[in-house]
Design goal:
heterodimer; A: 223 residues; mainly alpha; 9 helices; globular; B: 248 residues; 80% helix; 0% strand
């Protein structure tokens, strides 16, 4: 079995699991709904203030929601004892990482769209002002979260106090992701031009974490 | 002369620690000399801080915190470098000795990072009028501290010691990979700087510069000595564990 084949099979399996059980997506959707509702009540009433807060709030909601989804990336494997089988696949285990991360990425995209709708309805955010910039930030932000999250979730699932450890490991490392994404979102909504260098560095960040994930997975899944 | 001595100290300390970590039981004897040397440097540094360096005209005596705060920077980053370097060497060779070095670097590094974060606000309150500012370098140090703490948590929570070694090595490498981005992101997010850009460029009086330089050299060698002792401890722990397992 070749590497890309393993990648595709893992991806298809996870995607199918997500679509059939709807556990992960369902939980994330309800959680995001709840947090956005709370925020809508708590944030300042004036529209200008609310809009200036929205991009940062959006990405904080994304981060917390992704904890729910990404933290359980390896749950199905560890519960059913499939981890051993996955490790025995005679290919670079980085391909398993790609499959897992891509499935998480799809889930994150779904949550992003849902959160964007919630922000439109409850916080009156008008995305049309900077649609392409926001979409770009959404894609790059989700890729970074999925890559770092998949790697750290694999690590956290091999340790005690997993629920505590996962955010502690994840937050400092995805801080740049959050800053870049909310900055670009804010600037796009304000109608200002995004500097090319911001995109380049964001892209580089994603690339670095995809690479680290790919190469480190060989070691992480071994033990 | 002092800057050259600082550079030399960093290079020599790194070389010594790598040499030591390769065979701790046989080479730990050299740590005694490093310990004595750093012990001799401490009173020199303290005397310079107390009598040689002038009292700052505006801030007064509180500015003396400078001589503890600034020297702690080098060990903080040094510890990070050691933990990442040890992690890479461990993943390549699977030899426990490199993991011992990585763990020692992280543990001693976090002590200096904590020291820097603790004395900083004590100085900031009278100097800036506030305990904390979301200034670039301050925030950067705090994030570094969080990465360090996550690293140490991971080490103690991972199931089995081999798993802990591999996981922390990977996390240490990912942490170092993230650092430049964290720096850039914080600059983008906050921007406002309270810390001087580079004290040397602002015409620090030579007495102050020399005193802080001696402080840096002192801290580098104390750091190196503590890392060596921590490596010795790690080696002894491993041996004790092995003999207990062997006895069964």
């Amino acid at each position: 079995m070749s590497g890309p084949r393993v990648f595709l099979e893992v991806f298809r399996k996870d995607l199918r699991l997500d679509l059939r059980s709807r556990d992960r997506l369902g939980h994330m959707a309800v959680f995001a709904f709840l947090v956005v509702t709370l925020l809508s009540i708590v944030v300042p009433v004036s529209k200008a203030e609310r809009l200036s807060w929205s991009p940062a709030l959006l990405w904080v909601v994304m981060l917390f929601t992704s904890l729910l989804g990404l933290g359980r990336t390896f749950q199905s494997e560890t519960e059913e004892g499939a981890m051993e089988l996955l490790v025995q696949a005679p290919v670079d285990r980085g391909w398993v990482f790609f499959g897992k991360a891509l499935a998480s990425l799809v889930a994150l995209f779904a949550v992003e769209l849902w959160t964007a709708v919630l922000f439109t309805v409850f916080l009156d955010v008008d995305w049309s002002a900077g649609l392409w910039g926001c979409a770009g930030a959404g894609v790059l932000g989700a890729v970074g979260l999925a890559a770092a999250g998949t790697l750290l979730s694999a690590i956290a699932s091999g340790a005690r106090f997993r629920e505590f450890l996962f955010p502690v490991l994840l937050f400092p490392l995805v801080l740049p992701d959050l800053v870049f994404a909310s900055r670009i979102t804010a600037d796009s909504l304000a109608g200002s031009e995004i500097a090319g260098v911001s995109w380049a560095i964001f892209l580089l960040y994603d690339w670095v974490f995809v690479l680290i994930g790919f190469f480190a997975f060989d070691f992480v899944l071994e033990d | 002369m002092v800057p050259a001595a600082i550079t030399l100290s960093v290079v020599a300390a790194l070389a010594w620690l790598l040499w030591l970590a390769a065979d701790v039981p046989a080479r730990i004897g050299s740590a005694r000399w490093v310990g004595l040397a750093s012990l001799a440097l401490v009173p020199v540094w303290l005397l310079l801080v107390s009598y040689y360096a002038p009292i700052e005209a505006v801030q007064g005596i509180i500015q003396k915190i400078f001589y503890v705060h600034i020297p702690a920077i080098i060990p903080t980053y040094f510890g990070f470098v050691l933990s990442a370097l040890g992690g890479v060497l461990y993943l390549r060779s699977r030899e426990e000795r490199w993991d011992t070095l990585a763990a020692a670097g992280a543990e001693v590094g976090v002590v200096f990072c904590t020291l820097m974060l603790l004395v900083g606000p004590i100085w900031a309150k009278p100097a800036w009028g506030q305990w904390w500012a979301w200034d670039l370098r301050l925030t950067m140090t705090l994030i570094l501290w969080f990465i360090y703490v996550a690293y140490l948590f991971l080490r103690s929570f991972a199931f089995g010691s081999d798993t802990a070694r591999t996981y922390t090595a990977v996390y240490g490498i990912a942490g170092v990979g993230a650092i430049p981005f964290v720096y850039f992101a914080l600059d983008l997010a906050k921007g406002a700087a309270m810390h001087p850009v580079n004290p040397a460029r602002e015409g620090l009086p030579p007495e102050m510069g020399q005193t802080v330089g001696v402080g840096m050299i002192t801290f580098i060698w104390i750091f190196a000595w503590l890392v060596a002792k921590r490596c010795e401890l790690g080696t002894l722990q491993a041996r004790a564990l092995a003999s207990r397992l062997g006895a069964h």
